[in-house]
Amino acid sequence: MKFENIIKKVSGFIAAFVVFFLAAGFYLSVKGFEMNENGELVLVNAAYAAEEAPAPKVIPANYVMPESHVIGDSSAPVTIYEYSSFGCFHCADFHLNTLPKIKEKYIDNGQVRLVFVPFPIDRASMSATMLAECVPADKYFAFTDLLFKKQREWGMSRDPEKVLKQYAALSGVPAEKAETCLKNDTVAQEILQTRQDGITQLGIQGTPSFVISSAAGKELLAGAPTMEKLEEIFTQKLANN
User: Fold this and answer.
1) CATH number of the domain within which 195 lies
2) Is residue 93 in some structural domain?
3) In Å, how far from its chain's centre is CA 179?
4) Distance between terminal CA atoms of the chain?
5) Phi, psi of 25 (to 5 degrees)
6) Which tens digit of pLDDT belongs to each residue from 74-106?
7) pTM for the whole structure
8) Inter-residue contact 130 to 167 (CB < 8 Å)
9) Does 179 fall in a domain?
């Protein structure tokens, strides 16, 4: 092969790569992501808000909490809002190991209910969140359990979306619908807005975070609490109800 032809092929490859990179950058910016100084993808709104908005001491009384994904009786006197990312190891630990104990002791008897609030921390967890919104409502929590159980598998994959779409297919979402779901800007903006509100209105700085709500008000609990800590909180809230 002549030297000129080699140069042309290399130049063509570089040009194609640049076009792809720019296109990918535009798509991610539309979805609310940017590249930080460490070369990592972060959510634009979250990155700025975390620096600009200090955690409020008191959660606004008129703040409307999200209510999309609920486990438990709607009349339960105590509600725990779980702000969680599918890509967060501590979130997986809480959801798979602590939540079943809460469900058995408090949720199943109507004392507590749980609201799961997706709080994606990177591009892969954003894709997982958007696909979760696509599965049938009665399969949502089974799908979240699967995402947490398989967290290492899809999280460490070279193509997380491909693996996530395979999980979605097992939950009744065909490939074509899954692809459409991943490109749904309306759903993406709703997820990002809920996340942004969590940061600016509630003071959430990372995952997992929890808001415990009862007749006495709402309080933020950062990090993954032990079952013992939650029992202490629930006992106090239920006694004051």
Assistant:
1) 3.40.30.10
2) yes
3) 19
4) 82
5) -65, -40
6) 999 999 999 999 999 999 999 999 999 999 999
7) 0.77
8) no
9) yes
